[in-house]
Specification:
Helices cover 96% and strands 0% of the residues. It is mainly α. The protein folds into two domains: 33 residues; 41 residues. The protein is rod-shaped and about 100 Å long.
Length: 75
């Protein structure tokens, strides 16, 4: 009888562990599904900086091309 109770106790403890693991898996799935939403506030801060870098790069590209062309003409 005591052995049977110990078996039930182990099954109960395993069920509790499984329930906890299931809850953790649900939380992880929610994070994975909503990752973009979680990152938007963080990435949004850098979006303006990225846009500015793209603009500056676009402004500098013609100048660099002209310099390269004039260097080749001189060389």
């Amino acid at each position: 009888m005591i052995g049977k109770l110990n078996g039930y106790k182990q099954v109960y403890q395993l069920q509790l562990e499984l329930d906890n693991l299931e809850q953790e898996a649900i939380k992880m799935a929610k994070v994975a599904i909503n990752l973009e939403q979680y990152l938007k506030p963080i990435i949004g801060q850098f979006q303006g900086l990225i846009d500015r870098v793209v603009t500056i790069d676009g402004e500098l590209s013609p100048s660099v091309s002209e310099k390269d062309a004039s260097s080749l003409a001189v060389g």
